[in-house]
Amino acid sequence: xxxxxxxxxxxxxxxxxxxxxxxxxxxxxxxxxxxxxxxxxxxxxxxxxxxxxxxxxxxxxxxxxxxxxxxxxxxxxxxxxxxxxxxxxxxxxxxxxxxxxxxxxxxxxxxxxxxxxxxxxxxxxxxxxxxxxxxxxxxxxxxxxxxxxxxxxxxxxxxxxxxxxxxxxxxxxxxxxxxxxxxxxxxxxxxxxxxxxxxxxxxxxxxxxxxxxxxx
Length: 216
What we know:
The chain has four helices and twelve strands; from the N terminus they run H-H-H-E-E-E-E-E-E-H-E-E-E-E-E-E. The strands form two sheets. It has a six-stranded antiparallel beta sheet with strand order 1-2-3-4-5-6, with no helix packed on it. A hairpin with a 5-residue loop joins strand 8 and strand 9.
């Protein structure tokens, strides 16, 4: 085969590969979310996974220590923060938000205002993956463009709601459909979470590596 024909064949193969790749890229944000939910293990398993616990390192203001978090769907939680010179235990029950004082007594936090009540409602619905329901009129799913995040091509999907201006933007791997990064905006609070080391746990894909950065 002549050198010219080899080059021409390579160009044809490259174009074919490029065309095949471009055809595989999705544009419908709802379809991307459907693929994301399926990649994580399916809606039924996700909604059945009601209890989560994790431990992590934590640092703030020059102090470092550990944090332990217990979550129960849709919105119950307990958090234990130990920074050595400072320790904190707080949580959310069905009736109230609470914390433990220095004597180990439960202290009820101030009565939540309308903003806090709406935010809790949004979190509750997010936790049950209502945004994945195409018939829901509570959430709006938009986006679908592709961005590169730390060397990985990701679909960018933004989830908003009808109660307030809170939103979450997920960066979903175009190949695996697992979330590489998520950015949550709640009022002035801005939280970026980076996920890694996904493992299969009972049919669900769970990220064992999570790095979270908060800023106001």
